[in-house]
Amino acid sequence: MKGISILGATGSIGTQTLDVVRNSNDDFKLIGVTANSSVDKMKEIIKEFNPKYIGMMDADSAIKIKEFCLENNFKVQVYSGMEGLIKISTLDEIDIVVTSVVGMIGLKPTIAAIEAKKDIALANKETLVVAGELVMRKAREEGVRILPVDSEHGAIFQALQGNEIKDLKKIILTASGGPFRGKSKDFIKNVTLEEALNHPNWSMGSKITIDSATLMNKGLEVIEAHWLFDCNYESIQVLVHPQSIIHSMVEYRDASIIAQIGSPDMRLPIQYALNYPKRKEKVAKEIDFYEITSLTFEKPDIDTFKCLRLAFDAGKKGGLMPTVLNGANEVAVSLFLNKKIKFLDIADIIEDAMTIFEEYTHNDITIDNIIELDEKVRKYVINKKG
Question: Which cofactor does it need (predicted)?
């Protein structure tokens, strides 16, 4: 039985990971979980799984969870803030950490887990976007496996099994295109928040759903793929595939292409990452090819959805530029979610920040420099637009 911790257990990936654990026939023991401030959801997790350790980022929420555990005689240790994330990432009892928190907050606990020699089931894109070089190097040094949970990277990971990385010619990342696929700038300049959150295929958290609508989600995945699979940016192609049946593909030097196909259900890549290299009985719906009328593919419109272009630019420039990209995007998406800016403003804000902070991006890639620059970028965007 594997001991696991889930960072971000009440979010979209976290709740689907709990479902995989729930249906695992006792292959896993849930040792630790964290959340931001979802007290009611955390109470339900405690009642069902009885984990030994809880982390709540919000201090008041941590107090409420402590009171609940005392009242109901649950023998649970409760932590708050970043201390809790790091503690629950490094417990002696765990073998693998599912990092499903959203944003830069996932960086420190992921690094701590690697240093504690825990395998990482990675669903936190931002960790590799801002610190891919550090994370992958440290994982190699500690003998730790980074197992991708994103459906696209999970698909690539599967398509690479049994083959040599030297034979890889191209990674083809598929994208649904989001709710505004095929729409013009004139159409989307006044779209509402509700329209942007209406993803056609996937049920995700609000930040990731907006990233999908701007195609920034795919841009972050490009940078992530660069580090996960040691692939240069010229060999990574994004392909819009509205049906979300082919989750990504790998082309080899002999022109053979291997695709991973499955239902648009995140439990499939989660289950594979947690059980790798074994496969278990399905938790996702089977594909019935008789019901699929067509699979279509399109070139992404990087003029209308320029976040994808900006992500490629940031990745190619390297250094700390992806930190600027990510920090500006997180703040811009938050502003849009709070209806303080328009949809197309998100990309403009990111582009402006990348220009303003160009001189900072050549500093050494260290955790301290990443965090310092991230804070500067966020303050700049907030002061200008917030």
Answer: Mg(2+); Mn(2+)
